What we know:
Number of strands: 0
Radius of gyration: 20 Å
Number of helices: 13
Distance between the termini: 58 Å
Low-confidence stretches: none
Order of helices and strands: HHHHHHHHHHHHH
Largest sheet: none
Strand content: under 5%
Amino acid sequence: MSAAARTALRAWLANPWTRLGARDMLGTGLGIAAWGLVTGVAMVKTGLPTGLAVFMSLLVYAGSAQLSVLPLLAAGAPLWVIWLTAACVNLRFVIFSSMWRSYFAHLPRWHRMLLGYFSGDVIFVAFLKRFPQPQPAPEQVPYFWGSAVSNWLAWQLPSLAGIALANVIPLSWGLGFAGVLALLGILLSMLGDRTSWLATLVAGTAAIAAFALPLKLNILLAIVAAVATGLGAEAASRALQRAQQRARGPSA
């Protein structure tokens, strides 16, 4: 590492916004770690070779997508079903990216690409709580990277440990149930408005109603239903706000 890089790293670590971002991830870190451990074990138990499981953990870095496609891989589902499921699960990142643009559009493309890779649900929620106004500020980049590095380590280290120890961790430990509890904890911490609650209830209802579908397609159906509900609710909310503004008139 060059002297300039070491200086930049020390300055980043010393930045109070970096430390604040890392601290904001501590609340969900335990749940993320449990989720990562379960996913690492699940990849190997599903039949993925260790090297491919490590590659998937580091490259995909999306626990919901990984857990969604693993049953499909085990069931021998067609490739198009696997790709479509992963794409639908990650559709929310298109929305996230449009929001990130308001804060980071001024950064170089390579930097924005890295931001996209390290972005995550809990980071997005924590960031918007700290910076509700969609406009750039100097402290946002160190805050994001403090959050992102903390979240990445909380996921990857347990995931890699799960991959390494999958063959010695018995199923009787109930890690699957622990993973469900971790996901529920993370989910509940992110339900902050009526739209997210409505989308979650619709997704759960759709998943249960379509449980009999083959190849775990009820998951895909639940995702589509949740995304459609969320987008519809947001569109209705914006339309209602515009109608209220017109009703108040230009003098309001």
